[in-house]
Every structure is written in structure tokens, then in C-alpha cells.
Amino acid sequence: MKTTTLAAERRAKLAAKLTAAGIDVLVAYGNGWQGDYLMYVTDFPILEGHGLAVFTPDGACRLYLDSASEIDRATSETAGVDVHFSQQIGRDVAADLNARGKVRVAAAPLAFVPFALVENAHVTIEDGTLIVDDVLMHKSPAEVACVRKAAQTADEAYVIFREAAQQGRPQYEVVAEVESWLRAHGVADNFMLIGSGGTDIRSVTPPSNRKLADGDLVITELTPSIEGYFAQICRTLVVGKASDAQKRAFAIYVEALEAGIAAVRPGVLAADVARAENDVFRKHGMGEYVTSAYTRVRGHGLGLFADSKPHILENVDTELTPGMTFVVHPNTYNPNVGYIMLGDSVAVTETGCEVLTATARVLFDGAA
Amino acid sequence: MRRGLIEWSKSELPESVFDTRIAGMRAAMAAAKIDVLVAYTNFTRTSAVSWLCDFIPYWSECVLVLPKTGSLTMVSAVSPRGKPWVEGTTYSEILLFTPKIGPETARVLKESLPAGSTIGVVELDEVPAALGQALKTTGSTVVDATDTFVAARAAGDAADKGLAKTAADFARRALAAIDPNGTDAMAAVAAVDLAARKLGAEESYVAVAPDLRADRRLLRLEGPATLGDVYALRATVAYKGTWVRMIRTVVRNDSHGIVRTATEKLAAAVAELPRLDKLGTMESWLVETSRAAQPLDAVAGSSVPRAEAFPPGALVSVQAATVIDGTPILIGSPAIAGSAGTAGAFLIAPSF
Fold first, then answer.
1. Which CATH superfamily is domain B158-346 in?
2. Is the dihedral of CA A137, A140, A142, A144 positive or negative?
3. In sequence order, what DSSP letters do the residues of B173-197 get, joined into one string?
4. Using N-to-C axis directions, what is the helix angle for A141-164 and A171-184, rounded to 10°?
5. At residue A72, what are phi and psi to the nearest 5 degrees?
6. A254, exposed or middle or buried, with CB in 10 Å at 0-12, 13-18, 19+?
């Protein structure tokens, strides 16, 4: 079960940040796609509808949800939060703010709060996204411990994935096996994409009914959460026996992942990690394939959202500091064999980097 | 993040279904003097857009633009590399990809609308502030079009009913996968989840009340729990954009048929729908349906302050709590409200 002390620790940290910034009220928004801002404040992992939390630096917190079926969960799974069902959360939270008189209000992320909130609030709502991003990125030892546990779960779940990825099975059945294993082990959430095939596959998607065929590359990013904290593993396997071309291609990704991880330490920038990965591809004449035409990011933050900041890209100048957790993944398309995924979760330590996932960096195949 | 099977089933949702829906929506727009309809979709507010063009974002967000004539345009924040996937799951003809969907939607509207036009937005109050503010820069009048959308969608069409019945069947078969003699709540949840996903569910959320005598709240498990003498699981299942809920209560040694009695009680209440008199006699109750963007929107219930009308023949999911011979029971099922002399009924009886 979740630890309430972790929630209290987060709220205290956020309250201090708000006080330092002179913010009287923070409104945090979340939905089932991206719930990290809301989760940080309320400890509630929202699934259905959307929610707004009204938080003040004295620790008081009201949670407004517009899904009636979420109310029982919210009252059970949170502590110290005043839960309300609302059929018009934008207007109701605006009324809540208006009743507070002249106060400084910030919202995170402001761009996503319901339109009715900004239209009906009598105060100008400032963008508090960066304030919350800061506490989301810089994790306490207890938070890193949750990511570490999630990484161990990711390793275990990938074993299930390998066992399930048999020739002739549709992708959605493979994912169903992994999801069920996670539920059986008390893991409530998992971000997961999959792809299978050859040079026709340019990215990963939700599972389709495409059946795994002999020689297919099967790619996945598997991202379970523990106490709301996500960790990710990216791996590629081959149905049947891997070809020499697949093995040669995969070796480049291993080199890139190792280069990226070797760059992780306090004081360097996210861009430095991305550059270390991309330089390997450039060295092998694959510079074109580290552009946005073929890949999105070279890694991304992990925490209360599976795809959080910082994004590991050559133009992101976020400095790495101890307590940051992210995945390093030089995933991209290879014109000879198809899309390859390989990535490990890491934590920045005082002296360097702790690799949190432990699955071997090999191209798994039927002969492995 | 959706982790189930998302695909456009052209046997269950042929293009002619969308042609008919769009024609009906355009007639409603004309009656309301709306020149273009804008509908927003994200991970959790999928229903309006999927009803008009099938598309469901597995993550991220999109805007659908339906003009009074001409092609549908979808403005998507999904990466352009996802274009083949988006193309394969949407009826929309024009696809635009951008991380900033608000300004891009505003640009499309500015370029296509003459002065004095009216933009109708489904659930204007609920769309992201960045989108709402961008629409205000178009120079057109921006109005809420929720009532227009709801009226045109009405009780749903034959395709809606077919999908709901399939989803209900998935939910019942998933809940039937529980070992009623088991005591491990995580194993029960896993069995339901596996069965639903293997049947082809787009999503499966399983909630459990491990010991109804102690706590009647349905929760998402994050660790071990032991199933008591009376426990319940709720399967929330999505199939091709259609969501339903079903609840199964297990009473160990139910020699008096307590669960059957509770189910009959709910069936009698469902037969009266859209009237709510008998449901109102339950200890607690909830009726959800898909009106606009929410896949399951609370329209009436013992804890719902503002009841919304739902039409005869509407597809709903009903949940209720009752006590039979001192035993607390949670029951729930997808149902269809009565219409034109036909009584309301379960889509699939929640019998196990």
C-alpha cells in the first residue's frame, strides 16, 4: 500500500516552494494521461475524468473530481484531502478561488486547466508549472527508492514479456499477459507501447492484432509504477533466431546506450547525454536517424509521469543533479532492420549514475 | 495510456455510420446556427470525437473540426511518426500534426471561416484553457455546443448498441473468470483484467471491495488484500470507444440466493428506466452514460447533485448498493433504458 509519509513529505516540499515564490494558492490539474501534478499534491492517481486540486502552503488541500466513480477511490486512497464530486470543476474551482478574496494563484500546468476556470476566476491565474516541475524532477531519497522498486518490477515484467512474445500471438495478447502479471503483483499502472515487424515499423503504438512472425523484431517500452512512480525498460527481441544484420544493428544501440549512461553525472546537461548517444550513431553513419523524422527523444524523465522532464535532447539545457531519475534510450529506426529499442532507467547520484534496471543489454531471440 | 486493442472495426463501424452521424450533427448545427463544430479529445475525454470519426488517442490530445460542409480536419499532438496509426483509426480526411493544437486549430478556423461565423465547442467549459483561449483569437463567436451535440447523438444508433452489447459481454465474461473460492484479491483482479484484454477490450479497469462487510468502496489495488466472505469486483471495459461497467458480488455459501435476489431487484429498477423511482429506493445508486466527451458521465445518482436527463433507449451503466438479509451487496450492469412501450433491460444479465 502507499505510504502516507511520502505524500506528506511532498506536500511540505511544495508548500515551501510556494511560500518562497509568494504564491497563496496552487491549483494542480490532472487526468488519466498525465496525472503527475495532481498526484504530487493529492497522492491520488486519477484514472477517469479530470481533476483539480486547490492547495495552500498551510497544507490544506481540496480535490475536485468530475467522475462519480472516482470518489470512493479518492476518499480511500488519500489522506488529509477534502474530496468533492463536481459536474463542473472549472466553475466550482473558480468559485472556490473567488471566495478567497485577493490572493496570488498559480496553476500547474496552466495550459491544461479547464477553460471555465480561467474564464470565471476573478483573479489572474499565473503559470505555476515550473514550480511544480522543479519538485517533480528533483526527488528525495524516498522517491528515488520508489523508482528503484519500479525498475526492478520492470525487469521482472520483461521476463514475462519475453515468455509471452511467441510466434503467432497477436500483440494485444502479449500485452494482456504482461498487464495481468502486473495486476497479480499489485502493480496498478503501467505505460506500455509495442511494435513488431521489420523495416515497415517506424514507431511503437498501442498493441494491434498483428501476429508475431518468425524473424520479427519485437520492440517495447514497459513502464510499471510503484506508489505512483514509473520506471522504464526498453528492449528488443527477435521471434525465432536473430539474423546477423539484426545483431550488427543492435550493437550500435548498445554502444549508444553505454555512451549515454557514461555521460550521466551531476553538473552535466541533459543535452550532453543526448549528444553522447547521438554521436555513436553519427560515427556509424546514422546521423539522419537521430533527427525528429525518425525518433522523438533520447530519453526522458521518470517519476510520477512516465514521460516527464527533462527530455533528453541535444537542445535541452537542464542541468542534471542528484535525485533526478530518467530513462536513457537511444531508440530509433534502423534502415536495414527496422525500429530498435534499448533503454535503461537511471538515477543521478552525488558521484555519478546508478543504473536502476538490470536486464541484460542483448538482442533476445529464440536462441537466447 | 491505453494498453488494449485499439483498431477501427469497419464491420462494426462502417463508414456509412459516420456519414449518417455527421449528417445528423450538421443538421443540428444548422438549427443552432453553428458554422463549425470543434470537439476536443484526450486520453479520458474521448467519446465525442470517437463518435464522430472513430479516433481515440492512445495518449496525447487532438481536436476535431467539423465544418458545416466539406472535410473533417483533425489537429493532432501525436508525433508525426504516428501518422500511419492515426490514419488507420480515423474517419477524418485531413490530418495536421503539431505539438500546439490550440494555435493550429485557431489558424485553420481563421483561414476557413468568414467574418461573423460561430464556432460551437463541445464541452467548452472543460477543454484546456490553452485551446479555449486560442479559439477566442479567431474573431468568430465561440459558443458552447454541448446541448447541440447531445441532442444530435440522442440515444445512440444501432452501431452504438452493438458495441455496448459486446462490451457488456466482455465485462460479464471477464468477471466470470474469477475463482469464487479464491482469497487473493490481486489474483482476482488479474484474472478479470487478463480475460477482458484477451477478448479484445480497448481498456480494462478493475476495482475491488475485498470485504464488503467492512468497506463498500471499490478500490484499485496496489498491494495484497484478502477476499472476505462477501466481496465485489467491478469491471470497467471499453470496446471501440464504448465504455460499460459491471459489478459482481460474491457471497460465499450463498445458500439463500442473496446475490440473485439483489440482481432481480436491480433488474426491476432497470425495467423502469429512464424513470428512477425504484433505483431511488436502493441504499446508493448511480447512472452513467456517454452524453458528450466523457465515456461514462454521471447523469443521476444518490450522490449526484444535478441530474441530467437521458433519453428513452439510452445506453447506460447502472451501479447500486443494497442490503439483503443483512448482507451488503454491490450490483451493476450496462442497460438500455426503456422506450415506446418497451421496458428497460440489462444489455447482458450480470449472472455468474
1. Creatinase/methionine aminopeptidase superfamily (3.90.230.10)
2. positive
3. HHHHTS-TT--BHHHHHHHHHHHHH
4. 130
5. -60, -45
6. middle
**Residue of chain A whose Cα is closest to the Cα of B85:** A205
Domain span(s) for CATH 3.90.230.10 in chain B:
158-346
Q: Which residue has the cell 452524453?
A: B291
Which whole-number Å values give the CA distances from A263 to A151, A260, A356, in the listed order? 20, 5, 16
Interface residue B220 vs chain A (CB under 8 A) = yes
Query: ipTM exceeding 0.90?
Result: yes
> Strand pairing partners for B237?
B204, B244
Q: Find the helix or strand (DSSP H, E) in which A6 lies.
A: helix A4-21
Nearest CA-CA partner of B59 in B203, B253, B218: B203
Q: Which positions 273-292 of B are in contact with A (Cβ < 8 Å)?
A: 286, 288
**How far is Cα B117 from Cα A132, in angstroms, rounded to an integer?**
39
CA A182, CA B74: separation in Å to the nearest integer?
35
Question: Taking Cα atoms as reference points, which of B157, B153, B145, B154 lies closest to residue B16?
Answer: B157
Residues of chain B with CATH 3.40.350.10: 15-153
Separation of first and last alpha carbons in chain B: 30
Q: Which of B4, B191, B306 is nearest residue A87 as measured by Cβ atoms?
A: B306
Instruction: Check: CB of residue A277 under 8 Å from CB of residue A330.
Output: yes
Residue with cell 445528423: B24
Rounded to a whole number of angstroms, the CA Rg of chain A reads: 22
The DSSP line for B253-293 is: T-TT-HHHHHHHHHHHHHHTTT--TTGGGSSEEEEEE-SSS
**Which amino acid appears at position A122 of this protein?**
H
Q: Is the previous residue joined to A170 through a cis bond, with omega within 30 degrees of 0?
A: no
Helix B146-153 with B15-31: angle, nearest 10 deg: 130
Region of B156 please: left (phi>0), alpha (psi -120 to 50) or beta: left
Q: What angle do CA A153, A159, A161 make, to 5 degrees?
A: 100
**Residues B134, B106: contact at Cβ < 8 Å?**
yes
Contact between A111 and B129 (Cβ < 8 Å): yes
Q: Dig out the grid coordinates for A250 from the structure.
A: 543492435
State the Cα–Cα distance between residues B337 and B316, nearest whole angstrom. Answer: 7
Nearest-angstrom CA–CA distance, A321 and A325? 9
User: Residue B224 corresponds to which amino acid?
Assistant: P
**Over the stretch B295-321, which tens digit does the pLDDT of each residue have?**
999 999 999 999 998 999 999 999 999
CB atoms within 10 A of CB A69: 25
For cell 476557413, the residue is B112
pLDDT digits (tens, 9 = 90+) for B71-88: 999 999 988 888 888 999
Q: How many whole angstroms separate alpha carbon B324 and alpha carbon A183?
A: 31
| CATH architecture of the region B15-153 | 3-Layer(aba) Sandwich (3.40)
Q: What is the pLDDT of residues B18-73, one digit of tens each?
A: 999 999 999 999 999 999 999 999 989 999 999 999 999 888 899 999 999 999 99
pTM above threshold 0.90: yes
Helices (H), chain B: 15-31, 47-53, 83-88, 101-112, 129-136, 146-153, 158-176, 185-199, 258-271
Q: Report yes or no: B6 at the A interface, CB cutoff 8 Å.
A: yes
Which residues on A lie below 8 Å from B102 (Cβ)?
Answer: 111
* All domains in chain A, ordered by first residue: 4-136 (3.40.350.10), 141-365 (3.90.230.10)
C-alpha radius of gyration, chain B, whole number? 21
List the single best residue of A115, A126, A201 to mutate versus B (max B Cβ within 10 A).
A115
